[in-house]
Design goal:
The complex is a heterodimer. Chain A is an alpha/beta fold. Chain A contains five helices and five strands, in the order βαβαβαβαβα. In chain A, α1 crosses α5. The radius of gyration of chain A is 14 Å and the shape is globular. In chain B, the strands form three sheets. Chain B has a five-stranded antiparallel beta sheet with strand order 2-1-5-4-3, with helices on both faces. Classes of the chains: A alpha/beta, B alpha+beta.
């Protein structure tokens, strides 16, 4: 099983830590890079500035409410880019609002998962994302692009 | 003799002729006199008719005549009564004496223009009385012409409409007030939606952090600190989890208030079955018996109505007494609505709490006695009221609780919907 390059976009360091930890221990090999706002996320994906040598992600886990450029704008920008649009994006946000869910899918999100409010459910949600996207689903890996 | 005789005959003929002419003339005169009398009688009748009409007019309307410069030359009593000036004070004055200043100059310019063009002018004028109070008159003004065809006078007839104008103004004010209220409501609804979003995301986010990481703390450090620490961590987890549940319930309550009601002909029995499906495990665990039959067709949003039954039945099971819960669902027809009853044999509710039990987060027991946030009945109330019904608790002879709520009848709803469409 090859290692999945994951970009985690979340302004909450606690969630980033926990998510990385759960993914690392889930048995699906992944390499996780994290950024904390939308502007950084776009720079990372476009390999701009300090991210010139960053590995191109195979998968993005994106929070919605982010500083500077918010998750919806990042999503819209990525899905409008002829090259980047093929990277699957999972929205992972606390919001359970229908308007956020609908908007995300309209913008081309590949799945929407609400961050559960309880530890066990949080662990199982992240684990499910890992098992589905990193081992079951076939992703357009960097070499195959 | 013959001549004399001839002459006498001629004389006689002549006399006869004169006589005949006289008679003719007499007849003619009599005829003329009759015609004259007739004409006179007709004029008198016409005059009387005019006088009668003038009398009626004077009772109804205020009448004024001005010359072409607007100088008042005649007013009737009604006119004086309305404007409070006497005839003496008015005659010889310009009609402007009554101007209230309400209408712009152009209003009167247009009026005089219309009159100069020989049109009949009709309009509503606000005038000022002698005591400076104002009044409205519905006014018709006509221009009269002299026998030579020159403009002679303006005759105006008015009816007072002050009361109507006051009502109209009050209505306009109310309409304005209403539209302002509607705007306010719109704004406060938007605020509420904003609040709901804030509650759903911005409040839940930090709360989720507290809940998740105290749970993580509990999981990873249980037994590694001391017993007190474990207890405090457990309290924190409990508090955060409970607050999450409260926010979820608050969200749910606000969603019930905002969701569209998709009313359609709905069979209550089916809705009860649907509610029981959601309560399957609670029903099985408690061994509850739910009885109903012949429930009516109502006009309601089926999923919202199911929520009402689900909450009421769930409460009946939760607050059961010593016996196995038995829940009875009945219906009766009122004048124009259905009254549905959900009664049980549980612990009941003291009458002093019958009102406030429908308030959001109102609970009558501690959490250790009965879990829950106290959201169910407030949601029931909101749903029923949004359907145009009422919900209340009623006394019953046997122990337990008896909830009643009303729903509009199907036909009535259809009629209302048709009227709306």
């Amino acid at each position: 099983m090859r290692t999945t390059e994951v970009l985690l976009v979340d302004d909450n360091p606690a969630d980033t830590d926990l998510t990385s930890e759960i993914l690392a221990s889930s048995g699906c090999p992944s390499h996780i890079q994290a950024v904390t706002d939308g502007v950084e996320a776009i720079a990372f994906l476009r390999r701009e500035g300090k991210y010139a040598n960053a590995a191109s992600p195979d998968f993005v886990i994106l929070d919605l409410n982010l500083p500077r450029k918010d998750g919806r704008a990042v999503l819209a920008e990525v899905k409008a880019d002829p090259v980047l649009r093929r990277i699957p994006i999972a929205i992972f946000s606390t919001s359970q609002a229908q308007q956020d869910i609908i908007r995300s899918y309209e913008l081309g999100a590949n799945c929407y998962v609400s961050k559960p409010g309880n530890l066990q459910e949080f662990i199982s949600a992240v684990t499910s994302i890992g098992t589905f996207w990193f081992s079951l689903a076939r992703l357009p890996h960097q070499e195959e692009r | 003799m013959g001549l004399i005789a001839d002459s006498a005959v001629a004389q006689q003929i002549h006399l006869q002729e004169v006589n005949r002419k006289l008679e003719q003339e007499m007849a003619g005169r009599e005829h003329a006199e009759r015609a004259l009398k007739q004409g006179l009688a007709m004029s008198e009748a016409a005059l009387k008719e005019l006088a009668d009409q003038k009398f009626a007019l004077d009772q109804h309307a205020s009448v004024a005549v001005t010359d072409v410069q607007g100088t008042i030359i005649y007013v009737n009593d009604k006119f004086c009564a309305i404007c409070q000036y006497s005839k003496d004070e008015l005659i010889g004055q310009n009609h402007r004496i009554l101007n209230s200043g309400h209408h712009p100059k152009e209003f009167f310019q247009q009026m005089y223009q219309d009159l100069a063009d020989g049109k009949v002018w009709r309009g509503e004028i606000k005038n000022r009385a002698k005591d400076r109070s104002t009044y409205w008159v519905d006014t018709t003004i006509v221009r009269t012409l002299s026998t030579e065809g020159k403009p002679r006078q303006y005759v105006s007839i008015r009816a007072e409409i002050t009361e109507r104008k006051l009502v109209e103004e009050a209505l306009a004010r109310q309409a304005l007030e209403l539209s302002r209220k509607a705007e306010e409501l719109e704004r406060s609804n938007q605020d509420l939606e904003q609040f709901a979003y804030v509650a759903s995301h911005d409040l839940q986010e930090p709360l989720r952090m507290v809940a998740t990481y105290t749970q993580l703390l509990a999981e990873r450090y249980r037994g590694r600190l001391d017993e007190q620490a474990d207890k405090y961590i457990a309290y924190s987890v409990d508090g955060a989890v409970r607050m999450q549940a409260l926010i979820q319930d608050l969200m749910k309550f606000s969603q019930v208030g905002r969701a569209e009601i998709e009313s359609r002909t709905t069979e209550c029995g089916g809705v009860v079955e649907q509610a029981l499906k959601s309560l399957q495990s609670a029903v099985q665990e408690s061994g509850a018996v739910v009885n109903w039959n012949g429930l009516p067709m109502v006009m309601a949003d089926p999923s919202q109505l199911a929520e009402v039954f689900q909450n009421l039945i769930a409460n009946a099971i939760k607050f059961h007494g010593a016996e196995t819960p038995v829940i009875q669902i009945d219906s009766e027809k009122n004048d124009h609505e259905w009254v549905l009853t959900v009664s049980d044999n549980g612990i009941g509710i003291p009458p002093e709490n019958w009102q406030d039990i429908f308030v959001i987060f109102r609970r009558l027991h501690t959490r250790t006695e009965y879990p829950g946030n106290g959201i169910g009945l407030s949601i029931c109330k909101k749903i029923i009221e949004r359907h145009g019904g009422k919900i209340w608790i009623e006394a019953q002879a046997k122990p337990g609780c008896c909830f009643k709520f009303t729903l509009p009848m199907e036909t009535l709803c259809k009629a209302a919907q048709a009227a709306q469409a």
